[in-house]
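Re: weekly structure request thread

Next one in the queue (426 aa):
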Amino acid sequence: MRRDLNLWFPFALLLLTAGGLQGAEPFRYKAGEHGKGKLTYVNGVPVLILRGSPKEMGEQTGALAARQAKPLFDFPREYFLGECANEILRTNPTWTKRDARFKLALATAELTLWPHVVKKAASLERNFPEAHRAELKALADAAGKGVTDYARLAAINGLFDLGHVPQGELVRGCSSVIVPPRHSSTKGLLFGRNLDFYHFGYLHHYSLLTVYRSDDPEKHAFASAGFPGFVGCFTGMNDAGLTIASHEVQDPDTTTLFNPKGVPFALAYRRVLEECATVGDAIKLLDGMERASVTSLVVADTKGGAVIEVTPDALAVRRFKDAPGVCTNHFCVMKNPKLKEQFDTFKRFDGLSASVAVKADEVFGIDDLKKALHGARLLEDKIDMTIQTFVFEPAERKVHLRFADGSGPATAGKLATLDLNKLWSE
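Done, posted below.
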């Protein structure tokens, strides 16, 4: 099935989200406690606080969050069917979604292609770090078979690494910006990040900040913004101030797009937060690891930041030094001269770069980064796709964030401030 992503998704949105995307009531987790863990609200943000062994933390997640998020576990299948629907309509322009031939083709795709995607994603389970596998098994058991199961969760945790495999691509567009201490009004490094994703009107209702405090003294405490059941990390910061954000890469020009022996990228980036304290530590860890797919990792410690361009074959590092730096959804070091504009990656990169271009001793504050991120938000068919927005202060171990609530992009509202030191020590 050939990919034409600029055409696939508008039809997918129409197919799966009739009735509008922006007006739904925000999903609310119910606060509660289980074992050493609890789900609570901090300044209006849902926060899941986990303590203990991998098994204990998985059980806490299953009992407190996954049980309340049952529709979330159907999201990957619905997403895939939306892509298939769009491709069917693209290649058969006289058809409509009411056409019997369309319905047959879509049912065939679900019957034949979807199991192939799930099998390929689940095959990465053998490469999961053992602690993450134990956590995921306990999570599935605590959530219960009426909600999900381990096989399903294993596939979900490998699915995002199939972004450059023809069947089942899950594309997202994100923007990050790092301001070094000398150009920060706070005198400390600032790290801004948008998570942009096709949400189908409900994904963002399940956003959750998860705070981990392992009983393993060799592992850093960290906070990860994501969704229950996904144990890897897209966005997060640890107790050393190391902060990360992962980015999809559009049409990378690299020999290997997928390594079946590699660790899924989000689990690899979680290991960065668990085991590293500096940008140099992160580069060394990733360089010595089998990696499953192609991504960019924006990473910063208290002193400076960089983008690590990651493929199964190689790493390339773009350091920001003393000037602000940005990242969207294309490689800058490992360039592809044939790359065309997709999901406004060049437009967002240039706009974000211009918004933080420095003159002499000019400084930027948290509100300045929020404004810049609002300008870089991803729009598709006039629908805002920015579901999570952050400004991190690594030296202070603070994060200013907002999860979209269905009324517009996450960048449009006031950011809530969370002191992660307090949450880790609670």
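The radius of gyration is 20 Å. The first strand starts at residue 32 and ends at 34.
Next request, please.
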